[in-house]
């Protein structure tokens, strides 16, 4: 059973082709679009401003997404939000990535095809141009991304889109085994990689 809560008469929306892990929490004005993935223990709190996940975007384990009153937090199509990241009242452009434990603050905008590195701190109102590599605390643009960089990021996002399909098709709650099976299967690229 999903942990989904209405507030002030506003109920979250989850597209039937999206996967939201049962331990994630969605509150209020949250819109999870087609093919999206929301990982374990993520918290999307639409109790001040709207949160929108565009088609094929992902929000990984332990992410926190929130915002200030009347300010939308938007992750555009193919946006990729790494483990433990915090987004607050910001805009993440199409095919952009926010790395693990990074923070993107109110009014900041991450341009399309950009990467915000792990543990970066993007301050309020920062405007990051498309195709930028952003590192540090406070964050700064260090270079323009190459086509190869963007292709690598896009591959990772497609893996999460495949994970959405795998989760919808095969994930279920089970009791653990008490020992390792002799012929224990392994995850292979044929299973995990985009088709």
Please tell me about this protein's structure.
InterPro entries: Hexapep, Transf_Hexapept/Carb_Anhydrase, Trimer_LpxA-like_sf. This is Phenylacetic acid degradation protein PaaY. This protein is an alpha/beta fold and 195 residues long. It has 2 helices and 20 strands. The radius of gyration is 17 Å and the shape is globular. The mean pLDDT is 97.
Supply database-style keywords.
195 residues, alpha/beta, 12-stranded parallel sheet, 8-stranded mixed sheet, 2 helices, Transf_Hexapept/Carb_Anhydrase, Hexapep, Trimer_LpxA-like_sf, Phenylacetic acid degradation protein PaaY
Short description:
The chain is of the alpha/beta class and 195 residues long.
Number of strands: 20
Largest sheet: 12 strands, parallel
* Residue-averaged pLDDT: 97
Number of helices: 2
Order of helices and strands: EEEEEEEEEEEEEEEEEEEEHH
> What is the distance, rounded to the nearest whole angstrom, between the alpha carbons of the first and last residues?
29 Å
Radius of gyration: 17 Å
Shape: globular
Strand proportion:
25-35%
Low-confidence stretches: none
Structural class: alpha/beta
The helical percent reads 10-25%
Pfam families: Hexapep
Organism: Yanghanlia caeni
Protein name: Phenylacetic acid degradation protein PaaY
């Amino acid at each position: 059973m999903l942990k989904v809560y209405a507030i002030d008469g506003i109920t979250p929306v989850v597209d039937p082709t999206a996967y939201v892990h049962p331990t994630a929490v969605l509150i209020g004005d949250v819109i999870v679009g087609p093919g999206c993935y929301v990982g374990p223990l993520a918290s999307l709190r639409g109790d001040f401003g709207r949160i929108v996940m565009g088609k094929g975007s992902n929000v990984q384990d332990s992410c926190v997404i929130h915002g200030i009153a009347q300010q939308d937090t938007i992750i555009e199509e193919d946006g990729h939000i790494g483990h433990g990241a915090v987004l607050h009242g910001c805009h993440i452009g199409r095919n952009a990535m926010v790395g693990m434990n990074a923070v993107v603050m109110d009014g900041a905008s991450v341009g399309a095809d950009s990467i915000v590195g792990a543990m970066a701190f993007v301050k309020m109102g920062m405007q990051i141009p498309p195709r930028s590599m952003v590192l540090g605390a406070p964050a700064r643009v260090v270079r323009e991304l190459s086509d190869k960089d963007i292709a690598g990021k896009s591959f990772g996002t497609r893996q999460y889109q495949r994970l959405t399909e795998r989760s919808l098709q095969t994930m279920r709650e089970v009791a653990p085994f008490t020992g390792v099976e002799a012929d224990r299967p392994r995850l292979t690229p044929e299973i995990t990689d985009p088709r």
